[in-house]
Write a structure and sequence with these properties.
The protein has 114 residues and is mainly alpha-helical. Helix content is 71%, strand content 0%. It folds into 2 domains: 15-71, Winged helix-like DNA-binding domain superfamily/Winged helix DNA-binding domain (Arc Repressor Mutant, subunit A), CATH 1.10.10.10; 72-114. α1 (17-34) crosses α2 (40-48), α1 packs across α3 and α2 (40-48) crosses α3 (52-65).
Length: 114
Amino acid sequence: MPKEQTVGKPTTRRYSPEEKAAAVRMVRTLRAELGTEHGTVHRVATQLGYGVESVRMWVKQADIDDGHVAGVSTAEAQRVRELEQEVRELRRANEILKRAASFFGAELDRQHRK
């Protein structure tokens, strides 16, 4: 029998940093106890009732943040987002200044011609 599907938008759950950290610790502990990585994420995710891919991503990001694996750390990614926002704001400000300069330049030119 097929599962019943609910109509509407999918529900997404937001996990607290503490929940994520606990899941990562559990995966790492289980890996250390078993001496293998195989199946540990799935096992922990199922036990906690979390999505497997969510837990897998948290563990991967924690490994990057802790320097165990190469990649973009959470802090670096946040800094890039902040810099990109600053660039967008500066471009908007420059566009406004260009338009203002063009407007006032044309206005001065009209006054000078009179």
